[in-house]
Design brief:
The structure is a single chain. By secondary structure, this protein is of the alpha/beta class. It folds into two domains: 60-424, TIM Barrel; 444-626, 3-Layer(aba) Sandwich (Rossmann fold). Helix content is 31%, strand content 10%. It is built from 19 helices and 17 strands. The protein has helices spanning 17-27, 60-70, 73-79, 94-97, 116-130, 161-167, 170-185, 216-221, 224-230, 277-293, 324-334, 355-365, 376-388, 394-410, 430-443, 472-476, 497-502, 551-563, 600-606, and strands at residues 81-84, 102-104, 140-143, 191-192, 246-250, 272-275, 299-302, 306-309, 318-319, 340-341, 370-371, 445-449, 462-465, 508-511, 523-529, 566-572, 588-591. The strands form four sheets. The protein has a six-stranded mixed beta sheet with strand order 12-17-16-15-13-14. The chain has a five-stranded parallel beta sheet with strand order 4-3-2-1-11. The longest helix has 17 residues, at 277-293. 59% of the residues are buried. It binds alpha-D-glucopyranose. Alpha-D-glucopyranose (GLC) binds at residues 106-107, 144, 193, 248, 344-345, 535. Alpha-D-glucopyranose is lined by residues 106-107, 144, 193, 248, 344-345, 535.
Length: 649
């Protein structure tokens, strides 16, 4: 495991994060070795005799120096540029002519048909153009595999991070990430923009479900996801079951003040984190220290949001994409991050000044690669001009390019640039889905169970109500096949909660709107919750989003729970909803979060096939106005406290 270069002033000696790091180190345990070995593919070894950088026997550092020394400014700037695949679809030769370093699939940017083979063919097609470049530098292909390879139809879709945080099971998080890496790499992408190690401090944020929780110690422990994705050391990155990971969004994205977003269309997403250096280190920075120093994460994605120091008089908010102190002084120099920084989608356009100024500011702050979905040529032109004018030093360019090349060498892309499809048949396999099903079961949090209403008995006559009982799209949430996700049962395979219930109970009435007669039933099961959203689109106050229950959900609870003797309510949502008034009407209440494709896992705990063990990863508010409410607050009075969860069996 690589250690940071400069240990003398690293952040651990200056911030409480050191305690977190020590604690995190205790939870890092060996992972099951995989039998996978990278298969031979088309390689450049034929040239290795004349060009040392093509000799895989040499140390990566030596290969980087050799290759960098051969590159023109145009080739270097090209390596720092990432375009969305859609921008090169019409003319893939741009990949060669612009010497692009990377392509990505944004959420929902998928091949037609959306199959594993079509993905691999698509990525390999792009790669062939990269290998046609003068120095044959392969591209990195990135995707948001944030809860499985979510863009791919047929992939195993795990619970979103908020549910994985409820499991408190670091080994399971690592195993789920390993499966995600396997299913992703088998279809071509070698790089994922995951895991989000955001610390969600206000559930009115539309990305709260992408977080493992509100406690930085919990989020830090869950950075085992990095190990699941990358393996235990950079030597594993070349394997066909590993990918480069990205911890995001650095840092404080979940700690912004409600109402401070400056993008105009969001309210808290991309807002301002108003904090002191000490609190920032404790709450927002801690997971990154572990991700870098314990797990050797290969890339970091700075946040759209800004940081404003409360312990520095006159401090103004500075966007993370331009924050030299935090990108270079803290992350790279003090913490010792030697991977590369990838900007968020068009993030630099939210910086002050004209485009040239935005480019210059971010590069000089320490950004290494730029996600410029549809303006790669303009970015290349602007950065080249800034270097030629002396406003960006060549040493900064060489540092950025060296970091990027290091990842490509470690991934084995020069030896095996094309997709190794050995594991393509494991995608969505029963074995993978079984792990996801276990994750779903462990993520369920039992918050009330009067009269031992749960577990249910298979002989009971059940009345199930609520759209979210039988909607795969709603139970998977955002970042699933499309960016925002979508309701319905047609987009991808899986099992709904109702289907899971029906595999065990034989007498089940399903009435989505609770209009069917309730007489003659022993137990009512009402499934409430949210419909999918992603990012600031889900911010409370945007597009009607609220933490309050919908009128339909309230009506379903009222109708079913007043008519049937025993009433169980499940909440399928990305975040805590306001159930204060409804709770007394129920006998049992379960938070199901966003379980993903394996709804069976919910039925497993409902019927006692697995015990309830989940615990709240966030505090549960009594009202929307209680937010932000977090463990450790003064006058802490939530409906359910952080860490709460009843157990059964
Ligand atoms: C988005 C998100 C980021 C994601 C990127 C690429 O805007 O902020 O999490 O990785 O774009 O899809």
């Amino acid at each position: 495991m690589r250690r940071p270069r400069s240990r003398s002033t690293d952040v651990r000696q200056q911030h409480p994060a050191a305690l977190l790091l020590a604690a995190a180190a205790l939870v890092v345990t060996a992972i099951p070795a995989s039998s996978a070995v990278a298969e031979p593919g088309a390689s450049a070894t034929a040239l290795s005799g004349t060009r040392p950088y093509l000799d895989s026997r040499l140390p990566v550092k030596q290969r980087v120096v050799d290759l960098l020394g051969r590159m023109t400014l145009a080739e270097k700037v090209g390596q720092m540029t990432q375009a969305e695949r859609g921008s090169v679809e019409s003319d893939q030769t741009q990949i060669t002519s612009l010497a692009l370093g990377s392509l990505l699939s944004g959420g929902g940017s998928v091949p037609t048909p959306n199959t594993p083979e079509a993905w691999a063919d698509m990525v390999d097609g792009y790669q062939s153009h990269a290998l046609a470049s003068r120095l044959r530098i392969p591209i990195l292909y990135g995707v948001d595999s944030v809860h499985g390879h979510g863009n791919l139809v047929g992939a195993t879709i795990f619970p979103h991070n908020i549910g994985m945080g409820a499991t408190r099971d670091t080994a399971l998080v690592r195993e789920a990430a390993h499966i995600t890496a396997t299913e992703t790499r088998a279809t071509g992408p070698q790089w994922v923009f995951a895991p989000c190690v955001c610390v969600t401090r206000d559930e009115r944020w539309g990305r709260s479900y992408e977080s493992f929780g509100e406690d930085p110690r919990l989020v830090t422990r869950m950075t085992t996801a990095v190990e699941g994705l990358q393996g235990r050391s950079t030597k594993d990155l070349a394997r066909n079951d590993r990918v480069l990971a990205t911890v995001k969004h650095y840092a404080g994205d979940g700690d912004t003040t409600y109402g401070t977003s400056t993008t105009g269309d969001y309210i808290i997403d991309r807002g301002i984190t108003k904090t002191s250096h000490k609190r920032f280190a404790e709450i927002d920075l801690a997971p990154y220290v572990t991700a870098v120093q314990v797990h050797d994460v290969g890339s970091v994605m700075p946040s759209y949001s800004s940081v404003q120091w409360t312990d520095v008089p006159g401090s103004e908010p500075i966007r993370m994409s331009a924050h030299k102190e935090l990108l270079t002084d803290v992350l790279k120099q003090k913490i010792g991050f030697d991977g590369f920084l990838i900007s968020d989608w068009d993030a630099i356009t939210e910086l002050p000044g004209d485009f040239a100024t935005q480019v210059r500011t971010s590069v000089n702050a320490g950004m290494d690669m730029f996600m410029q979905p549809y303006n790669a040529p303009q970015f290349i032109q602007a950065l080249t001009a800034e270097v030629q004018a002396g406003r960006v030093k060549m040493s900064r360019i060489d540092d950025a390019v060296s970091r990027i090349l290091k990842a490509k060498f470690e991934l084995g892309l020069f030896e095996h640039p094309y997709t190794d499809r050995s594991h393509i048949d494991t995608i969505g396999s029963a074995a993978h889905r079984a792990v996801a099903r276990r994750a779903v079961a462990e993520s369920q949090v039992l918050l009330k169970n009067d009269g031992k209403a749960l577990p249910l008995k298979s002989s009971q006559r059940l009345y199930v109500a609520g759209v979210n009982a039988n909607d795969l799209g709603n139970q998977a949430g955002g970042w699933t096949v499309t960016w925002q996700g979508q309701s319905g049962n047609t987009a991808f395979p899986g099992t709904t909660i109702l289907q899971g219930i029906r595999k065990t109970a034989k007498n089940v009435t399903y009435s989505a709107d609770a209009s069917a007669p309730t007489a003659g039933h022993d137990v009512g099961v009402v499934v409430i919750g949210e419909t999918p959203y992603a990012e600031g689109v889900g911010d409370v106050g945007v597009g009607g989003h609220t933490l309050n229950l919908s009128a339909t959900d309230k009506a379903n609870i009222d109708r079913v729970c007043s008519a049937i003797r025993t009433c169980v309510v499940l909440d399928v949502a990305g975040r805590t909803q306001i159930v204060t008034d409804q709770l007394p009407k129920t006998d049992a209440f379960v938070m199901s979060w966003l379980p993903g494709s394996e709804g069976d896992g919910v039925a497993d705990v409902l019927f006692g096939k697995r015990p309830f063990t989940g615990r709240l990863p966030v505090s549960w508010p009594r009202s929307e106005t209680q937010e932000p409410i977090n463990v450790g607050d003064r006058n802490y009075n939530p409906l359910f406290p952080y860490g709460y969860g009843l157990t059964t069996g």
